[in-house]
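During the second year of the project, the team shifted from modelling isolated chains to modelling whole assemblies. The rationale, set out in the original proposal, was that interfaces cannot be judged from single-chain predictions alone. As a representative example for this report, we include one of the complexes processed in the last quarter. Its constituent sequences, exactly as entered into the pipeline, are reproduced here:
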Amino acid sequence: MRVIANIQMVANIAVLFFVIPLAIIAVNTLLPKKLAGRVSFYLGGFAGIMQAAAAAADFFLLSANRLHEYEFSLLWDLSIEGSERFSVDSLSLVMLFCIGMVTIVSVLVAKQTVHDRKRAYVNLLMTLILGMNGMVLVTDLFSLYVFLEVVGLSSFILIAMFKTDTGLEGAFKYLVMSVMATVFMLTGLAFIFMQTGSLQYKHVGMNVLRFQSHSQSVLIYAALILLISGFAIKTGAVPFHSWLPDAHQSANTAISILLSGIVIKVAGIYGFIVLVDLFNEVPAINMTVAVIGTVSIITGALLAMQQNHFKRIVAYSSVSQVGYILLGISTGSTLGLLGTVVHIFNHATFKSALFSNAAALHEQVGSLDINEMGGLEKRMPVTAFSSVTAFLSTTGIPPFAGFWSKLLIIMALWKSNMQVFAGIALVASIFTAAYFLRIQKKVFFGKLPDKYENLTEVKGTVKFAEIMLSVVTILTGVFFPLALLYLKGRGII
Amino acid sequence: MEAVVYTCLGLMLVFGILAVMLHSMLKSAIALAAASAALGVIMYELGAIWAAIFEVSVCSGLVTVIFISAISLSNTDKKDLPKLYEDGKRMAFLPLVLIISGILLIVVAISSVSSLPVPTPVAEVADNFREILWNHRQADIWGQIIVLITGALAVAVLFKEGELP
Amino acid sequence: MLNSVAFFLMSGTNIIWFMIVFPAVAGTVVCLFGKNYAIRSVAVLLSSAFNLLFAVSLYASEGFNAVFPFVSPRFDMAVSVYELSSMFLVFAAAAFLIVCLYGIVFLKDEKYAGRFMLYMYISLSMINGALLSDNLGVMLFFWEGLLCTLVGILLINNMENPKTAVKALALSGTADLLLMLGIIITVYRAGTPYISQVEKLPVAGVSAAGFVCMMLGALGKAGCMPFHSWIPDAAKDAPTPFLAAFPGALEKLLGIYLAVRIVVDIYDYKPGSKMSIAVMILGTLTIVSAVAMALIQKDMKRLLSYHAISQVGYMVLGIGTALPIGIVGGLFHMINNVLYKSCLFMVAGSIEKQTGTTDLRKIGGLAKRMPVTMACFTVSGLAIAGVPPFNGFFSKELIFDAALESNMVFYMGALAGAFMTAVSFLKMGRAAFAGEMKLPVDSGIQLPGQNKDAGKTGRNVGESSLGMLVPMGFMAVMCVVFGIANTLPLDKLLSSALGIHESFSGWPHSTMLVVISIAVLLLAVCDHIYGFKKSGSAINAADHIHYAPGLRRIYHMAEEGLFDPYNLMMRGIEAFSGICVRIERGIAWIYDDAAVKLTDGTGNLLSRLNNGSLSRYLATAIIGTAAVALIFLAVLLQGR
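Output from the structure prediction step:
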């Protein structure tokens, strides 16, 4: 009895992933204007906290029931034949948790960086969350695409909403590239649909074995090429990355956190996870993803070394880190997937931390040109500490969180007979260290310019976000072996 | 049924021309959405039920996407637009547009009558739009609801001028 | 009384406490509390006397073996007291006593006297330890300890310019390294680290390498070629008592002791074997080349230090024959060398103390001023030249005998050495003591260009103090005693210690050899007179050899240090390090310049490509799609 009740609870909680943002949009829109200015952020933060809490609760309920996934619907009858369904599993719940966490950080930072259009920001934040939640919960390639459009649309507007020249330009570039991705993906989906007659994951997964004849294979390969390209554009993997630094740099920092911290992962990486999972019979897909990943790691790092804008460096760092995640996916093994998921979480953490630092620097220094800074650790110790923590985690120095995920990914690569890629991934850590050392040295170490003599540490929510993310990074790193043991004990690994 | 198809074709043509010719971007976007909706109806009437569903799903997303791209493009040099495209001059192109589209329609009609095969009914379990939409694409409905909400919000955010300093 | 002392030493770990720890403690006490000269002297006298007493009592006892384990069974302090080792202990203790007394007086006013004595005492600990230990590994430890104190003493006055110390460290260190290698091989072949348990190893194959390494190490410590070249340099930098103590006495004691142990106990070393000939060649080369260098020296200490090297050659030659007569002769020569060479160094020190210099060109006519010193010099000089009836004559005759028995060539080499030794000492003695005083008389007026501290003036030159004369005189007397009454050292001490029943004492039995030796000595006198007549002064009496056609260039090159093994070694090392630097720079270039420039350049290129133009972005994406398609195609084709 109790177990069944628990299972019902899983569905009840999962529904919250849609209900809460929708409810908040409704409340936020209906509030009187004056009240909205004060309450909006609290509503947004509430949504983030609820999302994270719901994801955690569902995760433990699922594992307590020793279930791998649980299907649910939103106001429709699951018993109808051929009906679509939402589904929660460990992977999607981790993604949902990350979404919640990054949302909280974004709201915390926005409280100090977003001064007008607060209501609109929170509304669009909610639609963005809805889109991302939908993407990770659906079980149909076309629905995935529909929710991807929601994510894309919300992102354009979030970038463009403050109507700065750079913001509009960045949004426009993102838009054009996204349209291209849309065209690729739709075409690819159409090809697959021609072969299978259905786009539900289980039908595609079953039917993919049937592609024996030559023409059919060609069609599927074409579809895969197009889908990979489309998702690579959304992810910002090299050579589809060009829009990413422009968009992430030009957006308000609170929005950059969202874009770099979670959107590229849900919109792109999650698509790759689904593709590799569905088409694991096609050997070329692993190789392609691995090559894209490797190229991304190296090119992103090389480009990051050349930049002088704090946010742009961090944006290019995202390109590089996404490469690691893609390498993890390319193994197709459980270990690789685990490494991928952990790295997604870690990347969400430390990338949010770095963008929080950017917000702090922007608030206090007024500029993000790293050549103008120096010695800020004396005036902004919290920011400096959180930045160093994030940097060490990104580089993969034990015992910080990033070490474990990179270790898992490299181990998975090694076990999947992809030693060359494992070696490149290892060596490329040097590049990561190189560009981050450069940024740390120029911003936080060295001599303090005279004009910054009276600088003070950032206060309020940004400081809180920095501290919170540093703590999460360190705790994850220290307790990660325990987490591994827990997952193993629960049979998730 | 034929009447519905031709009516929709006409509507589509009208909305398409409106979308191109209208001065206001918002109106132009709505016109485009209407045109694509009309196209969806035509597809459904012709038996391409899946295509019709995809058209509605995609266009309600894409339309918004495209119109925002237009906004972003035109936003910077908005002041110069009236000078370049005087209303009178633009209307002068209307007959040309009509003539071209008329010729296109005739060509399409002739070629479809002569060469297109008779549409075979789709031998699927779900034969009608409603059944497919409500029994197979429930998640899409939610997705489209959210797309619409987002679109509305986008319009609200991007066209609200007064709030910014 | 000796028996009771010996019994006391043998009980428990007392032998370690009193033979090894006690000197070091005494040295520390002297160093810490010896500010006062009187206290210092008494402390040194007492402690050295006690050490001598212990040594004598051990010699008087029947000998014993004991093992004091440290940690593991193989690593322990195995003590072996038997006739040979305890005899060396006595010699070392006696030499130490005398040299230290001399040193105390010599260094009376020097600030570093305390430190010097500390090093000396630690050296004594090390020598006692090395002589006592039966375990080769532990012996090596003490052996290396002696090197440390040696370098320490050389550094005392030369902290700013430690060239000599570094040279000594490099050369002796190489010798010690060879010894270590040799010990490793020996222990490996013998299967035991205890000398007393080693069955005589055959000198062949791997063991031959072990023998060579160990022998080179032992002889290197004694100052044999090619590990000799730091000694003449030390003559310039180090205090004179050091010369008397280390190159003169203690190092030779230790080195020759081990060489004898190797030849007699550890390896089955046969007369006439190839190895024996090799060792004899080494000895002969050392004799001839070192004495040839001594011949042309104009500085007393430097001249003596070359003789110190040359004399080792005789010992090596004697031991190298592997004949009982040669070994006994070599050992006897070692003892005699300790006596007369220490005495000679002390004479040099005495002159240095009184005149402020040992440069033969500046001094002269000291006979009247320093008669006792001159007497000591005469005795020890005659002894080293091998004039009967002094001790050097008898030991040399034994070695000549053994050399002749092995091969004529070695005998000729040894004779040549004897000839040049005599010539150089005639020159040195006459230059220093005969003739007129060359030092300026103290007129109370500061002469221009004369440094006030450079030396004492002629008027003040007188006989040295009693504290220096007594050790010198004692050594000189011993030279005579060991010559006339050579039964005591030869039969009572050496032969019995080595277990040889033959008697080598008394007048040499080969009259022909004696005649030849005396003829050589007379020839040397003639040569000196010829040289004196030719050049007109005693100091330049050897110039006709120095500047003889052919020899002149060789001498020049030798003076330049071209034959110095240290310089050769250093040149080799420099070349090697030059190559290493090149390689290192190359590697550094790869990651300092090449890698950085490559990374930077690539990054720059990429960011230039990424210039913000949307059409270029789209084109890149299209190219990316094509690349993805290509990868697909490649994998598919590979799959076929």
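Residues 282-493 of chain A form one domain. Chain A touches chain B through 49 residues (CB under 8 Å).
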